[in-house]
Design brief:
It contains two helices and four strands; from the N terminus they run E-H-E-H-E-E. With 74 residues, it is α+β, with helices and mostly antiparallel strands. Strands 1-2-4-3 form a four-stranded mixed sheet, with helices on one face. It starts with a strand and ends with a strand.
């Protein structure tokens, strides 16, 4: 299991989800993906993406305008 970091700060929708999708394609099952984004729409998008793809959203936090999601690839 490895962590993969995706810096999607400053990207507008759908940039953060596209970056997440590309990182998930290269990740192995069980890997933890950490995504940071500043686009407010990312919060709703990452929840929907995880539900649609079956990946597990471990946490989603807002740290002074930076949304940080931890996702486990299944």
């Amino acid at each position: 299991m490895a962590d993969k970091y995706v810096n999607a700060r400053g990207l507008q929708c759908p940039g953060p989800i596209v970056q997440l999708f590309q990182a998930a394609k290269q990740a192995a099952s069980g890997d933890i993906l950490v995504v940071e984004a500043t686009d407010g729409g990312f919060k709703k998008d990452v929840v929907a993406w995880c539900k649609k793809t079956g990946n597990e959203l471990l946490s989603l936090e807002d740290d002074a305008g930076v949304l940080r999601a931890h996702i486990k690839k299944v």
